[in-house]
Amino acid sequence: MSPVAPLAADARPQTLDLLPRGQQAQVVGVPADSAVAAWLAAVGIAQGEELLVLRRGLFGGPLHVRTGCGGEFAVARSLAAEITVVSVAA
Q1: 2 lies in a domain?
Q2: Is 80 exceeded by the pLDDT of residue 3?
Q3: For residue 69, how far is the Cα from the chain centroid?
Q4: Tens digit of pLDDT for each residue in 21-56?
Q5: Where are the alpha helices (DSSP H) in the chain?
Q6: Is 36 exposed, middle or buried (0-12, 13-18, 19+ CB in 10 A)?
Q7: What is the sign of the dihedral through the CA atoms of 20, 22, 24 and 27?
Q8: What's the domain count of the chain?
Q9: Domain of 47: which CATH number?
């Protein structure tokens, strides 16, 4: 189990789709839909987990994120807009 990074001094909840490339964040909320939440948890995107935004697709394309356990996934912007995160200090 990796240590939890401290929250950034200006950490305010925002949605994943708004995070810039290179930003690390902690998940604080996921969609209420149980099937979507279960899939997100299975790939390591659950409340309390950390994510790193690796790339942002052009023209509203998906976000490429790395989870705290090392998995990398493309997350559709529409889904990313439903995932609430707070920035963590690097």
Answers
A1: no
A2: no
A3: 13
A4: 999 999 999 988 889 999 998 888 999 999 999 999
A5: 34-42, 77-80
A6: middle
A7: positive
A8: 1
A9: 2.30.30.90
